[in-house]
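User: For my dataset I need records formatted as: sequence, then structure tokens, nothing else. Please produce one.
Assistant:
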Amino acid sequence: MSTQPATRTPGAKRAGPGEHVFDLAKVNHILGGPDYSTANGACVEGDRMIVGLMRMPAGTGAEAHSHPNEQWIYILEGTFKGEVGGKSFEAKAGSVLYIPSNMVHSGKATKDGDVVFFTVKDASYGLQGIKAA
């Protein structure tokens, strides 16, 4: 009898043998960074990749944090403003952001509306990062 590996992210869904399609509206919703971010949504983990579909309410966001795994963020809705490695950015729907491993970054949804984003990280670490000191 084989056991499925535990998730790296508390509350995330682990893709099991034979599971290939996930309805993200029905997958457990978690906080993207419980002690530093308002992002919340579905998270699914595989052997080498982690994906999430997150919503950040208008006017809220993520404080400065980092994580040992690299991250891609694709903005589906809204405008996301922030900093990556001390450089400011503004990302609108259709933009993709790249966050290198261990790079401090932060961001906020503008007051105009929620930001909805799809994110992908390598599975060397969980979805949630570490709040910057």
